[in-house]
Amino acid sequence: MKVASLFTGAGGLDLGFEKAGFDIIWANEFDSAIWETFEKNFSETKLDKRSIVDIPTSDVPFVDGIIGGPPCQSWSEAGAGRGINDKRGQLFFEYIRMLEDKQPSFFLAENVSGILHPKHKDAFNNILKQFEDVGYNITYKLLNVNDYGVPQDRFRVIIVGYHKKLGKKFEFPEPQKYKPVLKDAIYDLRLAKPAKDKNKTNGDGLKIPNHEYMNGGFSTIYMSRNRVRAWDEPSFTIQAGGRHAPIHPQAPKMKFISQNERVFMPGKENLYRRLSVRECARIQTFPDDFIFYYTDIADGYKMIGNAVPVKFAYSIAKKIFSDLSTLKNNSQDEQAAFNEIDEKEKVGLIAHINLIKSLVISADSAG
User: Fold this and answer.
1) Which CATH superfamily, name and number, covers 2-177+318-329?
2) Which H or E element spans position 38?
3) H/E element, 37
4) Which residues does the annotation mark as catalytic?
5) Across the strands, what pairs with 261?
6) What pLDDT, on the 0 to 100 scale, is given for residue 329?
7) Burial class (CB in 10 A: 0-12, 13-18, 19+), 248
8) Nearest one of 287, 307, 312 to 176, comparing CA atoms
9) Closest CA to 131 of 109, 114, 156
10) Nearest Cα to 6, choosing from 137, 102, 134, 86?
């Protein structure tokens, strides 16, 4: 089954769908800092590098599904929260434009939990209605990726639409029993390297690709909360900004001073460093052979922090693939059963169906 990807980023969502059996044949990403990473990891996928607002729907191939997460900064609880009043928030309508014209069997849209904030209620309900108006039965839910094989607390809203012609609504898979923790993800990684001067990458000087961390001080906002999770806990949310990366679990939890003030545990300061780019990728469940390409280490953190965790994407994609495969097989079985009917019976059946149709039309005309 073929898929087109919008707002692709580094391809976490794409990789999850690929692992579930889908074929990502076309993708769109406007940020030039991401292009090399995507193209080297998805060499068979055509990457359209234009802004989505400049892409006519005729340039997008017909596919079974469209996936993607429109930019989430507009809806973020941590940001300005302008929602639909922000240009980035309005990119949801570009997604709907694609759906309306291409009419795939399904779509999946991902966004931050902030989109469910009461101040966005009217805008969010309007978006859902527009999805329905262009032909889809909609299901949405707030999920924690830790319930789906990801060693991280990260809450995201997933919207799945099945085309009304399928006669089915998507049902989310049940949470998994085991909740992975940091030890599962990064315990086997050894010493990371600090980035070079001005936080430039070490490049080929790394034994483990991308296993380098950002240098620099910590802001008062950063130091206002504990930023350390222990080995036996899931990570804090991996964010797009490297300066906000969680502290490695080798360090003890930060010491409380006052309501908005923490310090590194005295005498243990040398243990406090940010998670490396590769450690963040592991926590986002990217495989080690998925290499991120960048000059500024900040771009590495940004690509990973904006991505959908691969195993989370896979869990949702696997359910969609199963649903569509079942529907397809049932349709084929019905066609095969029809083909096996004796030719005389087939002619009689068709005549009977046509008679019913004519009676219905006559009744409507009489009414």
Assistant:
1) Vaccinia Virus protein VP39 (3.40.50.150)
2) helix 32-41
3) helix 32-41
4) 72
5) 258
6) 84
7) buried
8) 312
9) 109
10) 102
Biggest distance spanned by C-alpha atoms of the chain: 90
The average pLDDT across 52-59 equals: 95
Q: Could you read off the pLDDT of 124-137 as tens digits, one per residue?
A: 888 899 999 999 99
Helix (H, G, I), strand (E, B) or coil at 5: strand
Element (H, E) at 280: helix 277-283
Indicate the burial class of 232 (C-beta count within 10 angstroms; 0-12, 13-18, 19 or more).
exposed
Give CA angle at 269 (264, 273), nearest 5°: 90
- Tokens encoding 278: 């590769």
Residue 171 CB-density burial (10 A; 0-12 exposed, 13-18 middle, 19+ buried): exposed
For residues 3 and 357, what is the distance between their CA atoms, to the nearest angstrom? 36
Q: Which CATH class is domain 182-305?
A: alpha beta
Q: Which tokens hold the place of 76? A: 């973020």
At 190 the three-state DSSP class reads: coil
